[in-house]
Design brief:
By secondary structure, this protein is α+β, with helices and mostly antiparallel strands. It has 15 helices and 6 strands. It has a 5-stranded mixed β-barrel with strand order 1-3-4-5-6. β4 and β5 form a beta hairpin. The N and C termini lie far apart (67 Å).
């Protein structure tokens, strides 16, 4: 039957050529019309498209079936993800959906807080605490200014200041006990909102009230901004580097003596914002600028009570993130993806010549993301790194212990065989 279809073309060559040319001319127009027409995905409603894409929309540094944060990975701090580097480049429709809808970032935050609370839940709590500190500082400053203005008009400054403090304390208690309308609405739709949803909601409120420094206006939604803030202010860590290959373990303190000029500068920078007593061997207490240690702005008993209540409720966060810290690079070579350790200075004695005896406590492992030399410091390096999740920190410590006793395979931590 196929050969019979070609015989009329041979009998009528002119007609065959005419038909062939016509068909060849109509083919491009047909393909153009198909390209210009709507895609098959356009038959779905936008809500359905959003739901479909949500199954593959992951964000940078998201744990997914153990594929990220792998010690054996060539680049464990790779920032590529489907939501930022794949889906927006598929089509204009995908780009529009990814850029105009913020719920992908909300769902990603909920997953991260649930799957990796060691990093992301801690980052949210730290952001909320800093927002509360900013609110308390502003409240104290406003009350002090109002007290000074009243003191110029009346002699009863103490009675009026006490009255103002009591009124504002009452109003703050009422505001603290009054439920937010958005929380009530969420509770109405979902009788029991999860812990992660409540924490993310508080983080959004803190970000809206007190945006981070150097925050520029952008088209990003609130959840994407919240993700970026936690990543840049908590997950990423930047500090000067002390380089000495050795073995360290989280929670195991050790002592060092700094005598090189570059490390004298390092410890001087770390202790600059702390009291002089902290450099003379006394106990180093967490430092919150404007609140702790006691500031000159705190002039009344009620203000001091508010500050102490806030600090007491967040003492774990203060102990973890408000002590002097730097990076101890204990592995070689000193380059990208090499593990390092964040250490806290627990005791410090700085001698008149600048040398120092310090007692350090390792608190977290990081992967070095970037490292550079500070100009004019005599080869003092500074680095920025990404904190390791808890499970990867435990795996890394296990490998360090095994390699220390000769149970490694001799190829280095990045190329090691699976741990038995």
């Amino acid at each position: 039957m196929g050969s019979c279809g070609t015989r009329p073309a041979a009998a009528f060559p002119g007609e065959g050529r005419t038909k062939l040319v016509a068909s060849s001319k109509s083919a491009p127009s047909q393909s153009l019309s198909q390209n210009d027409g709507p895609s098959l995905l356009s038959i779905f409603h936008e809500d359905i498209m959003l739901t479909i894409l949500s199954f593959v929309a992951d964000v940078p540094f998201e744990l997914k079936d153990g594929s990220k944060y792998n010690l054996r990975s060539r680049d464990p701090i790779d920032t590529h993800s489907t939501l930022t580097h794949v889906l927006p480049h598929v089509s204009k429709q995908f780009h529009k959906l990814c850029s105009e809808h913020d719920h992908y970032w909300k769902n990603a935050l909920l997953r991260l807080v649930k799957d990796d609370p060691y990093l992301w839940e801690e980052g949210l709590k730290r952001l909320i605490f800093e927002s509360e500190c900013n609110a308390l500082r502003e409240s104290i400053n406003d009350r002090n200014k109002a007290r000074v203005r009243r003191g110029k008009r009346t002699k009863t400054i103490h009675s009026q200041s006490d009255e103002l403090d009591s009124v504002q304390n009452t109003s703050s208690d009422v505001q603290g006990n009054e439920p937010d309308s958005r929380v009530v609405l969420s509770a109405g739709n979902n009788p029991e909102p999860s812990k992660e949803e409540q924490l993310v909601h508080k983080g959004c409120q803190a970000l809206e009230t007190y945006p981070p420094r150097h925050h520029t206006a952008s088209s990003s939604g609130i959840y994407q901004c919240l993700y970026q803030t936690i990543l840049n202010s908590h997950i990423r860590f930047q500090a000067p580097v002390f380089y000495m290959p050795t073995s360290v373990q989280l929670g195991s303190p050790y002592g060092l003596h700094f005598f090189e000029p570059r490390y004298r500068l390092l410890i001087s920078d770390c202790m600059r914002s702390f009291p002089v007593s902290a450099r003379r061997g006394e106990e180093i207490k967490p430092c919150v600028p404007g609140l702790s240690p006691s500031s000159n702005n705190i002039t009344t008993v009620s203000q001091n009570a508010e500050v102490q209540s806030l600090l007491e409720n967040n003492k774990d966060i203060m102990k973890e993130h408000y002590l002097p810290t730097f990076i101890h690079a204990h592995q070689s070579p000193l380059r990208r993806n090499t593990p390092a350790c964040i250490v806290q200075v627990r005791h410090c004695i700085i001698q008149p010549d600048g040398s120092a005896d310090v007692f350090l406590q390792p608190v977290s492992y990081i992967w070095i993301e970037e490292i550079w030399e500070r100009p004019g410091t005599g080869s003092l390096y500074e680095a920025r790194g990404i904190r390791m999740p808890k499970d990867e920190s435990e795996k890394y410590e296990m490998w360090c212990v095994m390699s220390r006793y000769g149970r490694g395979d001799g190829r280095g931590w990045a190329q090691m065989l699976p741990i038995p």
